[in-house]
Write a structure and sequence with these properties.
The complex is a heterodimer.
Chain A lengths: L14 H8 L14 H8 L4 H23 L6 H13 L1 H11 L6 H15 L3 H13 L18 H7 L3 H15 L5 H4 L4 H28 L3 H5 L3 H4 L2 H7 L13 H4 L7 H7 L5 H6 L8 H8 L10 H17 L18 H12 L1
Helix pairs in contact in A: 3-4, 5-6, 9-11
Chain B lengths: L2 E7 L7 E7 L2 E7 L5 E5 L13 E3 L2 E3 L6 E3 L16 E2 L1 E4 L2 E6 L1
Antiparallel strand pairs in B: 1-10, 2-3, 3-4, 4-8, 5-6, 6-7, 9-10
The chains are: A mainly alpha, B mainly beta.
């Protein structure tokens, strides 16, 4: 379903990577809404309590739903249990990995580290590789050739997008990357963002994970049952839909190659359950602008700076109503994107980048 | 040759906080610890040259505002990814209510 070959080169070692550096888009100075030091200090303050509460609920729900699924294995009654278990395993770990990687979820660093490692295993993201790729994502958000975490490249590959909802391609790539890393191989692209002294750690983790998956498969073969895989590994597929549903909204259909998160990120109002699973990452403009602010404080940050941001998208459904037509239009014109309007109270910033892309989109 | 340079008044910095100080084309970060001691480091993160004075001080840690890299501001030691290179530290003294930094 993708259109003609892209004029964009998303490779981290390709033409657009060099262009981004030449054009001043790499490691650029990004726009920040004015917030006083006093207010920002208050917002940045860390606390263990909210994340401990949420983690206890999360782990308890994982254990109960997993145990229920195992107990009712073989009957249809296991389906609702695995539905919940899958989302907690294959989706909520996306935000746990993310927040603990930033080190903002808990005040106590070892708690961040433990949840980070567990969540990385479940979401199948090497904790070393992804820490560095996410660092680059924050430095060069949706800069073509620089950001390794652009989930929908132009023109959009809609088959790939649909397959992401069941985690097939992600899991396939995660497994191949794991085996390649376990064999001691760090790719050329990975070497562009993982410092040399960290590469050994990525290999060590890949070997530990390979051993865990091998043990799970051996257990499944020994018992002649899929149950061990339903509990370890497969939930990354059957439970992926929620993190993909909310994750696509982060930047989908918006501008590339701008240095203002208001123009390339989307804040979406969501229901409480999705916000629990997603740890408030629906406040995505705010998170990118101020990554030091813990997830549980993002609603307060949103209230403080929303005068300077585009109007938030009112719901998940509204987000898809604007994003899907944009994806379809990008199949015909890959330069098309959703241009965010800033409110009259907002400060403009580096409009030249956006104006250039608008002109290209209009051609 | 090093010299003692007046950076700010001691009261200019809150406890457990940090302040930017520019001098001679260089930028520094001046810290006041929870124990009411003063410290100074280079002002830019060794990872991507972001001003640490916009970051968060927690106990003896300064966290970079861009990628959450952490340093011990008393020793300059990098405390984990994404920072790998230590921060340079400078001697500090307080004299007559002024914070002085020894810049070499």
């Amino acid at each position: 379903m993708s259109a003609t070959p892209s004029r964009r080169d998303y490779s981290l070692i390709g033409r657009d990577a060099k262009l981004a550096v030449e054009n001043g888009l790499a490691a650029a100075e990004w726009y920040h809404t004015e917030v006083s030091r006093k207010q920002m200090k208050e917002l940045m303050q860390r606390s263990d309590a909210p994340a401990i509460r949420d983690t206890v609920i999360w782990l308890a729900a994982l254990i109960v739903s997993g145990a229920g699924g195992a107990w009712f294995w073989g009957s249809w009654w296991c389906v609702p249990f695995f539905f919940v278990y899958g989302v907690l395993y294959g989706s909520s770990t996306d935000s746990r990995w993310h927040e603990c990687g930033h080190g903002t979820a808990f005040r106590t660093q070892w708690m961040n580290d433990v949840v980070y490692q567990v969540a990385c295993f479940m979401i199948m993201r090497n904790p070393v590789t992804w820490r560095w790729s996410h660092t680059r994502h924050h430095t060069d958000t949706i800069i073509v050739g620089r950001d390794p975490e652009i989930s929908v490249m132009r023109p959009p590959d809609l088959v790939r997008v649909l397959l992401a909802f069941v985690g097939v391609l992600d899991a396939w790539h995660a497994m191949s990357d794991m085996l390649r890393n376990a064999a001691g191989n760090i790719s050329t692209a990975e070497k562009t963002f993982i410092p040399e002294q960290e590469q050994g750690k990525a290999i060590r983790i890949a070997r530990i994970w390979t051993a865990i998956y091998a043990a799970t498969i051996a257990l499944a073969l020994y018992f002649g049952s899929f149950l061990p895989l339903m509990l370890v590994g497969l939930p990354r597929l059957y439970g992926a839909w929620h993190h993909v549903m909310v994750g696509l909204l982060q930047h989908g259909g918006l501008a590339e190659n701008v240095v203002d998160h208001r123009l390339n990120s989307r804040t979406v109002y969501m229901n409480r359950i999705s916000r629990f699973i997603y740890w408030n990452m629906n406040y995505h403009v705010e998170h990118h602008m101020f990554p030091m602010v813990p997830y549980h404080v993002l609603p307060r940050l949103h209230a403080l700076i929303k005068h300077d941001l585009p109007a938030p998208t009112p719901s998940i459904l509204a987000g898809y109503r604007e994003m899907i037509p944009a994806f379809l239009r990008q199949l015909r014109n890959e330069d098309y994107f959703l241009k965010r309007e800033l409110p009259p109270t907002a400060r403009p910033y580096r409009e030249e980048f956006q104006n250039e892309t608008v002109a290209a989109a209009a051609e | 040759m090093s010299e003692w340079v007046e950076a700010c008044a001691a009261d200019d910095i809150d406890e457990e906080d940090v302040m930017r100080f520019d001098h001679g084309g260089r930028t520094f970060a001046i810290y006041r610890s929870p124990d009411d001691e003063y410290f100074a480091t280079d002002g830019l993160c060794t990872h991507e040259k972001v001003h640490l004075a916009d970051g968060l001080v927690m106990d003896d840690i300064i966290e970079c505002p861009k990628h959450n890299g952490r340093f011990n501001y008393k020793t300059g030691a990098a405390r984990g990814a994404p920072v790998c290179v230590n921060l340079k530290t400078y001697a500090v003294k307080v004299d007559a209510g002024k914070v002085l930094v020894q810049i070499g």
